[in-house]
Amino acid sequence: MSIRWTYAFADRPRAAFGAACDFWTAVTATRLSEPRGEHAEFVTLLPDGADACVKAQAVGSGPGGAHLDFCVDDVREFADAAVRLGARVVRDLDALVVLRSPGGQVFCAGLWRGQSSRPGVVRGSRLDQVCVDVPPSAYSAEVAFWSGLLTGWESRPGALPEFHVVEPPPGLPVRLLLQRLGTERRVAHLDLPCADVGATRAWHEALGAEFVAGFPGWTVMRDPAGGTYCLTSRAPETGRPRV
Prior knowledge:
Blueprint: E1 3-13, H1 17-28, E2 31-32, E3 42-46, E4 54-59, E5 65-72, H2 75-84, E6 88-92, E7 96-100, E8 106-111, E9 129-134, H3 139-149, E10 154-157, E11 163-167, E12 175-180, E13 187-193, H4 197-206, E14 210-215, E15 218-222, E16 228-232
Parallel strand pairs: 1-4, 5-8, 9-12, 13-16
Antiparallel strand pairs: 1-5, 2-3, 3-4, 6-7, 7-8, 9-13, 10-11, 11-12, 14-15, 15-16
């Protein structure tokens, strides 16, 4: 079972969806596709000269968050494997299956349609990661689930004890980070490695984002739609920590 492509989804409240799309298209140097879905709730962020790897969804309730889509040759095989490992199916549309991990994180399996060209770095940064913040009671199970499902990916402890990285083979554009929280809440957010975190922060603030908090190695921001995300000091070209 091979994962051929990955998408990061920014899920944002419908009331602020336009602001979210304006911000994330600027940050990723993309343009919006035509809306699709029963309520025109889905858009793809289209780069020039490469295949898209970021999408956005307008959600009707709650603050939103982020999730991953996995593009595969056989959607049924991937979904069945996820269920065997403890996931449950939320919605089955044949060519697209929406699932929920044992710890409660939504993700999707869709049909691969030939995507292969990863977008480049934009002004020193690149959206390359979905971070799933996991409550302590579910952390071990989530690490085991994602490590078992994402065969061929490198599963390893992160730089700090509360992090676990599940990194795809070269060429796939979006990877997964699991973060153990100190509280029983569940949320996911987007991460961008930056050549210069301070410069990227200033650029994002000029686009309407707000600073939330700073930590060694990452800075927490809030986009104009109220969604949190992080700027990290990883190398944007590789996604790896700088040596």
